[in-house]
Amino acid sequence: MPAASVPQTVPEPPTVIVVHPRERRSKCSVEPLRDRDGFVFCTFPHPVPIDITGYVRLGIGGPVLSEADSDRGLLLLDGTWRLARRMEPFYEHVEVRSLPVVKTAYPRKSEVFPDPSEGLATIEALYTALRLLNRDTTGLLDHYHWREQFLAANSWLQLPLN
Length: 162
Fold this sequence. Notes:
By secondary structure, the protein is of the alpha/beta class. The protein is built from 3 helices and 5 strands. The longest helix has 11 residues, at 122-132.
């Protein structure tokens, strides 16, 4: 009798986070993820140490991230909005995906440069994207100071997506 076939699961591509060197690590919302499996960090302008062919980049102005992207890797640019805009041209070959309307809980204080109204803290954007892709978010917000406010403002993120 032949052995029962066990479905093979394809591992999810790691999430790549490119951090601008002027981003203060003490204020970086994704800093606690540096040693966590499934994440690759690199400092701009150093090259990403893995092949990002087929990845999508979270940003503003692209189609909304959906289940159709579930097999693709995510690339996030981490820095202030002004610094992230400076990094974008180096990753314009990576398709952009936007997020649906999500309310940030991160208090903004810039008196010099306006943040886009769609702007989120990197950890908020990452959490939302992983939820939309039905990926594991266990513990992702554990070190985020505004976790409760973020989840309360976006209660739909806690509902089963399928």
